[in-house]
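Hey,
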Amino acid sequence: MTRGGTGTRAVQAFRRSRRRLVTGTAAAAVGVAALATASAPPGGMALGVDLTARWTMDEQAGPVMADSSGSGLHGTIGAGVAVGDGTYHFPGWTANVDGAGRLVGKVSAAGGAVSVPDQWAALEPGQGSFTLSLRLRSALTGAGRLPSAPAASFNSVQKGRADQAGGFWKLELSGDGSSTGRLRWVVSDGSRSAVVTSAVRVDDTRWHTVVAERRGDRAVLTVDGVTASVSAGNVGDVGPGNPPVTIGKKPGSTDPRDAFAGWLDDLAIHH
């Protein structure tokens, strides 16, 4: 999308309308309705509603991850991602572990991930509430643990990056220090961030149910019904704009410390 073009202005307009909607004013409701009539996104996608996107990950083959919500936010499945058993298997770091259990080499920048284009900036919190839910099962090394890697974050789902304007959000699996084996949920406006670490470890090859939220002035992360939260009151507009959502690794990275190895299933985003 060309900066400053018609598409960019449409994204900015939709984001402004969603912020007004969060305030609950009558004027906001009128503005959103008028905008939807004037320039609705493709496929009838409506921003500011409950279910924004859902990917059941049930595909048996092919390169398309289908969005069943009706929003039309379909993803492209990288060649390294295995499908067909009702879940997606992400290779992550599995080909990059040496004999001592340390990470070496590089991973593909895109082959081990799913990319979901977000032309209309629908998959971001802005200033309002936002919920990401999924099922997750982590892979382990032959020694039955995560690989040894300083600053490893094993990114599972992410939109935007810390080195890009507008902020970002991400769910990652820590592979370093006292938080090893625990999930982290991060929401950032580009200047200030809220980081919450799960109370439950997930480095056990079992399936775990995960719900990550921006709920009012809190960042909340619930794993298997056990909730942890931190204040997010100082975090403003989380609005990276229209970069894609990347599933299975940090967007564009070839560092195996940024790549999730394991299985994901039934990913959904609500506003």
